[in-house]
Amino acid sequence: MISPNIEHLHYFTTVVEMGSFTAAGRKLNRDRSSIGQAIANLEIDLGVTLFDRHGRTITLTPEGEALYGKARTLLQGYQSFCQFSQNLSSDIESSLTIGIDHFTTLNEMSRIDKAIHTAFPGLHVHWQRQHTDALDPLLEAGTIDIALRLFQNRDLPEVFHPQHVDNVTLVSVMHRDTAESHPTQRLHSELRKVPLIAYPDLDKVVRTDRFENVQQVFSPEAALEIVSQKAAWSIFPLQLISPESERYIQVSLDTNAPMYGRRILIWHHSHRFGKAQRWLANQLTSLLS
Fold first, then answer.
1. For the chain, which terminus, N or C, has the lower number of CB atoms within 10 Å?
2. Which residues of 247-265 are buried (b: 16+ CB within 10 A; e: fewer)?
3. Is pTM, for the whole model, over 0.70?
4. Contact 147/99 with Cβ under 8 angstroms?
5. Is the Cβ–Cβ distance between 199 and 223 less than 8 Å?
6. Contacts of 231 (CB under 8 A, 6+ apart)
């Protein structure tokens, strides 16, 4: 059975990607002769010629081209295995499934995702966006590990642990032409005549059944796009709104007092709580600020 040296495979793929033994040596902090000898030994182990050599110029042979992709896959699997074993010994989860509702924006999700991968490079993060009400059953079933969602005024079972994260500032937005033809402070009763664009979980903040003309869409981003195009209004997380937009404008509803949606991080007590989840629970407030 062929058992090529894993380090020699790494040298081989680096030579291919850098274009020469000399450039690969600089990247790997090895001299050119060491790289050349490693490739020669790998060719002996494999029983094929990987490169055609023309002085200091090299090109992949057909066999070398066929083996390069396999070598990359093998190295990635090996590195993944090493990271996985290290995570096991360090109490770091191999994967983390995070549930979010529609009050977590795409920008916030990408910021959290980047921070997790920086702190735990080998961790696989999976995201599930669901209605607020759907997240607790997923936690109960173990389908997700932890959830960031809007707080609801109801008693939680003792098996769940809620942690207050922040208050999402909410703003009312109207199509600019509609808003500028009326005062920027509006009564709810006046807005019965203007279409309300409602997205999932907005009914946790405003009673959509009190409005006659309600159009349901699948996300805050979709609602904002509609409000930007025609006479309509909706309520959004402030971080989703660009004050420089020429297509819509913020309006106050009944009062100048700000509206808030309280967000919590929640998990199930009986499920495994590894180092990555503990880190997320400690860092999430600062990540979202």
1. N
2. ebbebebeeeeebebebbb
3. no
4. yes
5. yes
6. 175, 177, 178, 194, 195
